[in-house]
Amino acid sequence: MVVIKVFRMPKLIITCALTGSATAPSQTPYLPITPDQIADEAYRAYEAGAAIVHVHVRDPETAMPTADLDIWRETLTKIKQKCDVVICVSTGGGAGMTAEERIATVPEFEPEMCSFNMGSMNFGMFPLAERIKEWKFPWEKAMVEMSKDFVFKNTFADLEVFAKTMREHNVKPECEVYCSSGLYNMGFLIRTGQLDLPVHIQYVLGVLGGAYSTPYELINLQTETHRMLGPDNYTWSVIGIGYPAEFRLGAVAMTMGGHVRVGLEDNIFIKRRVLAKSNAEFVQKARRIAEDLGREIATSDEARQMLDLKGINKVKF
Ligand code: KMH
Ligand code: ZN
Fold this sequence. Notes:
Blueprint: E1 14-17, H1 35-48, E2 52-55, H2 69-82, E3 86-89, H3 99-103, H4 105-109, E4 113-117, E5 121-122, H5 138-146, E6 151-152, H6 156-168, E7 172-177, H7 180-191, E8 199-205, H8 215-229, E9 234-240, H9 245-256, E10 259-262, E11 269-271, E12 274-275, H10 279-292, H11 300-307
The structure holds (5S)-5-amino-3-OXO-hexanoic acid and zinc ion.
The site of (5S)-5-amino-3-OXO-hexanoic acid has 13 residues, from strand 4.
């Protein structure tokens, strides 16, 4: 007799990406910039139901994405003082940062999690230039326009150093997969013993240079992951870039048993043409959709258990 397994969905982990490096301050006045603003936003997102916050930092004067370790320290410490949310530190950085600058937070702070981008790619933000009428800061226009000729560099040599550093410092990688080549790069790292199972994957759909933000792309990547790794060797989440992709792909992921990321790093609109006034609004909306779809929300401690994280008492900040 054939035994049909009943698939019980895990609690839903909502990650909130607070500020990013590709969102330009001229796109929205609600983007948190200073360590205090980022920490406040983290706390509000946590209160709304985010189990994880994904963090980048910016120069408080110029709002430009920065790799400055003092600003990182201040931001991480302030978030930790407010709550026990899981902090996922970005190693994607921002345009113009070297791989060395991007990975420096891992040995310095030994966070519970960090992002790990699975390969080099084009990363085009330049179509935005036509939509912004007035720029707050001159560097924003330059950053957006130069993206036409920008390669987000994550060569195999970079991946090797990043994987080794994360392992040495006991930091759980979140594998950012933008299209199927990222998946196969990840497979290579697993096969060559550089990346441990189970992996946590964040499918990032809708970057100009990566896969399109359609359910078909998500289902294709997730199916391919399942074929590669089997049922027990991975957990996954999705980012839909922009509106309405953030919510539509989030709903597909919730329906499929995956997890979701929302926040101002990825999308600025809460409804068509309506800016979100805070990251918490995105989390509240994701939570509402989840409740309607019958997915319970995971707390930060439940996310720690599900992703096998080392715990907040083992970080160096
Ligand atoms: N901003 C993204 C499209 C990272 O920080 O390492 C994906 C991201 C990458 O969050
Ligand atoms: Zn990021």
